[in-house]
Amino acid sequence: MTRTPDERDAEWRARLSPLAYAVTRRAATEAPFSHQGFAPGPGTFTCVCCGAPLFATESKFESGCGWPAFSAPLPEAPVAEARDASHGMLRTEVRCAECDAHLGHVFDDGPGPGGLRYCINGVALDFAPDEG
Description:
The chain is built from two helices and nine strands. It has 132 residues and is of the alpha+beta class. Strand 6 (91-96) and strand 7 (102-107) form a beta hairpin. The longest helix has 11 residues, at 5-15. The termini are far apart.
């Protein structure tokens, strides 16, 4: 049975916190330095909406930007990019390709050979620690 957009939207509202809904389903941004952080240790950061694996702790770094930052997504991560001209800026938006959740933006001022900084809203992510 196919659900209407209103039914799907109601499901997202019921499943997500108000802030996670605003960020992932309406492309809002959480305030910088407002996310409580994640448990320490190795693991995988997943989409808060659909659970798709997106980033590994090995790619996480402290950028000072106020949001979790990653140098690259996992090799098979369903990460999509799109041009974003909102708020008077030209940026590259990052979305989950599995469920179309807005995650954040990617910039070309990151570390390492790729030189990218995936600036991701903390409320758009869950953290799954590695087993063992």
